[in-house]
Amino acid sequence: MPILTLDELVTAVRAEIGDSTDMAMGVDALPGIRQMIKRIQETYYEDFDWPHLKIFREEEILAGQNIYTFNSDIDSRRIYGVWVRDNDNWLPLQFGITPDLYNSSDPEEGETETTPLRWDFTEDNQFEIWPVPSDPTRIRFRVMKQLDPLVASTDKCELDSNLLILTAAAELLARAKSADAQLKLSIATSHYNRLKGRYSQNRMFVNGQSDFQPRPKNWTIRVPR
């Protein structure tokens, strides 16, 4: 996957539309092209769960505390798995805390249990765990990371560069009412579908073999220690 800086992306977009690649030329258009590329990357980011951006993030859990704030570098709307550390084991933490659960262990009454069993969203980018732990532990999230900024000239994109370049070129050509706009859009769409298909084939890399192999049906993600 090509990874380019914002300035390199701008140069490539200009080349795709037949414009001058000299950054000193057409200076007035640069902010608009940069903003367009940034917006296109953010749009594609929202449109698909990109596997290479799925990460693990760990939270330290304190005894007697049940409300925590998500790390700022993750997209808390896109969580794929949660585990809690119980002695030497990682156990799945189930989603959903309903009022009836407080009948058996109520945080407002100061009631605690050894290990949390469930989690849920609360306000202000926070989450709650239940029951309140009596001992400190750790929680790991499998989650989508937030995109790094794509604002400064040297900032690097995190999605496929060709996808961003082709889409931006198609949009600029459409604005100019160029006959090439539809062709460029078709190429961009085909490339996007190809990328999604490749990522969606549920394959894993096997060392020493020439290609990625299908994952076994019982394949699960092992939470790192």
Low-confidence stretches: 204-213
Describe the sheet with the most strands: 4 strands, antiparallel
By DSSP, the count of extended strands is: 10
Q: Which structural class should the secondary elements be placed in?
A: alpha+beta
As a whole number of angstroms, the C-alpha radius of gyration is 23 Å
Give the helix level as a range of percent: 25-40%
Oligomer: single chain
- Total individual domains: 2
Brief synopsis:
With 225 residues, this protein is of the alpha+beta class. Helices cover 28% and strands 24% of the residues.
Q: Any overview of this molecule?
A:
The chain is α+β, with helices and mostly antiparallel strands and about 220 residues long. It folds into two domains: about 5-50 and about 160-215; about 50-145, no CATH class. The chain has helices at about 5-15, 30-45, 160-175, 180-200; strands spanning about 55-60, 65-70, 75-85, 90, 95, 120, 125-130, 135-145, 205, 210-215. A four-stranded antiparallel β-sheet has the order 1-8-3-4, with no helix packed on it. Strands 2-7-6-5 form a four-stranded mixed β-sheet, with no helix packed on it. β3 and β4 form a beta hairpin. α1 (about 5-15) crosses α2, α1 (about 5-15) crosses α3 (about 160-175) and α3 (about 160-175) runs antiparallel to α4. The chain is elongated and about 70 Å long. The two termini are about 30 Å apart.
Question: What's the arrangement of secondary structure elements?
Answer:
Layout: H1 6-16, H2 30-47, E1 54-61, E2 67-69, E3 74-86, E4 89-92, E5 94-95, E6 118-121, E7 126-130, E8 137-145, H3 161-175, H4 181-199, E9 203-205, E10 212-214
Parallel strand pairs: 5-6
Antiparallel strand pairs: 1-8, 2-7, 3-4, 3-8, 6-7, 9-10
Helix pairs in contact: 1-2, 1-3, 2-3, 3-4
